Amino acid sequence: MEPVPIKPWIDVTLTLSTDMVVWRGDPPFYIRKKKTMERDNMNLSEVTMSVHAGTHMDSPLHFIKDGLSIDQMPIATTVGHSRVICINDRESIKADELKKHAIKEGQRILFKTVNSTEHLKRPQFYEKYVYLTEEGADYLVSCKISLVGIDYYSIAQCGSSEPVHRTLLGAGIWIIESLDLSEVSEGNYDLVCLPLKIADSDGSPVRAILRKLQ
């Protein structure tokens, strides 16, 4: 019997760059050379950014006063099997649609919407992205999932992000935002998504990769 070929890893991370889109009011991503090969015989750069720039994670501390910070996240939260669910609704992720997918306790759920193909890589921030409704967040809490991800800069509606974040993070559901799922189909995957170990931080940029399960 021939061995089953191993599926390739898919990078679902946005590239951090000076011209990237950031959440309204957040500091822009900025990188500059402090030392150069020509002047100092080495290159050394410094970066200024929000911890919520690009593909990133929200820790409970983002909206919960005494919540866990990003350096306290258990590694198993973002390493292991995950499930990509395609959402057909072009406005929002509603509880009625979620109920059709038989979401199970402990699952890591990543939502692919039209954000991945139409909105995530726009040159300007887009307010009418697909978001998770409050009822949808309540339903995910009732399913007792461990992790949720989405393909835009916030999982919640623009201008009304607090309730959804508080519901999810308050229930111990960690959040990944700004996933680039444009090259990913619905199904089951191995996920590796590690934030930087930043002390007392409410979030962190991540490098996220997926590999389709056989």
Task: Describe the model.
The chain has helices at residues 37-40, 95-98, 115-119, 134-143, 162-170, and strands spanning 9-11, 30-35, 44-48, 56-58, 79-86, 92-93, 108-112, 131-132, 147-150, 174-177, 187-195, 203-212. The chain is built from 5 helices and 12 strands. It has one domain (9-212): Putative cyclase (Glucose Oxidase, domain 1), CATH 3.50.30.50. 15% of the residues lie in helices and 29% in strands. The strands form 3 sheets. The protein has a 7-stranded mixed beta barrel. Strands 2-3 form a two-stranded antiparallel sheet. The chain has a two-stranded parallel sheet with strand order 6-8.
Pick out its properties.
5 helices; alpha/beta; Glucose Oxidase, domain 1; globular; 214 residues; 15% helix; single chain
